[in-house]
Predict the structure.
Amino acid sequence: MHHQDDNAVRMGSVPLFTPTVPPKITSISHDFLVKWKVKRRATGEDFDAVLTPIIEIFNAELLDAFCDLRLRTPTADVT
């Protein structure tokens, strides 16, 4: 049986950096999104550099249905 010395140096890997987790959007209300955008600007974040248009990441049919049923807005107005 091998016993580890309490004073021994332990080797291991240490990450050099940790990826930054983007702030989550937890609501689609206009009021929430305006506050979210203001907060990003107040912290100096350039959200335009990392923003992805919804039309590029959403299933087109699902987006159309969401806009019609939930937002009651034409899809072209939200993209």
